[in-house]
Amino acid sequence: MLMVNRALQDKDALLEAFPDLFPRWSRRPMLPVMRRTFGMLLKKYGEPGVSLAEYQQRLDGFMLRVREQLDGKPYLLDRGFCYADMTVVAAMAMVKPVPRAGSPAPTAYERANTCDGIVTRYEDVLDWRDGVVARHRQRTYLGNPV
C-alpha cells in the first residue's frame, strides 16, 4: 500500500504504470483511469485503520528478519539456493525494485516503489538480493543456464 499511496501522489509514476500496449500519446488523457485504478487497489487491499507508518514498520521487521536469517550466509537456508530465497527476493520489490541492467537512473514508477528509509537501513540485505538475482536470473529451475 505504500507504493500505491506514493504513486497516487506522482503523476509521472501513474503514467509509467500503463502497459506498453497503450501508445504514449494516449496515456495522459487516460490518467484519471489509472488514478481510479490505483485508488481501487488501495480500497481493496488496504487495511482500514493501518497507517503508512505501520506498513513501514512491517517492512522494517521483514528486512530485519531476513538480515538475521542470512547472518553472513549466501542463501537463507544452509542447503543453498531455494524457493525461500526466490520468495524473499520477490517480496523485497516492495522495498526497492531490482535495478534494471544498463539503466542508470530509476524511473518515476521505480521511485514510487522505493521506501527510502528502509533502503538506507538495509543496504546490505538489498545488496544480497541483487547478488542473488544476478547469479540466478538467467537459470532454469534445475540451475542450468538459459
List descriptors:
about 150 residues; mainly alpha; globular
Tell me what the structure shows:
The protein is globular and about 50 Å long. Helix content is 58%, strand content 0%. The protein has nine helices and no strands. It has one domain. The model has no long low-confidence stretch (mean pLDDT 92). With 146 residues, it is mainly α. Helix 1 packs antiparallel against helix 4.
Give a quick rundown of the structure.
By secondary structure, this protein is an all-alpha fold. The protein has helices at residues 2-8, 11-16, 24-27, 31-45, 52-70, 83-91, 108-112, 116-121, 123-136.
Largest sheet: none
Helices and strands, in N-to-C order?
Answer: HHHHHHHHH
Give the integer mean of the pLDDT values: 92
In whole angstroms, how far apart are the ends? Answer: 34 Å
Tally the helices: what do you get? 9
- Taking pLDDT < 50 over at least 5 consecutive residues as the criterion, the unreliable ranges are none
> Nearest-angstrom radius of gyration?
17 Å
Number of domains: 1
What is the structural class?
mainly alpha
Q: Count the E strands.
A: 0
Measured by DSSP, the beta-strand proportion falls in under 5%
- Indicate the overall shape: globular
Query: What is the helix fraction of residues, given as a range?
Result: 55-70%
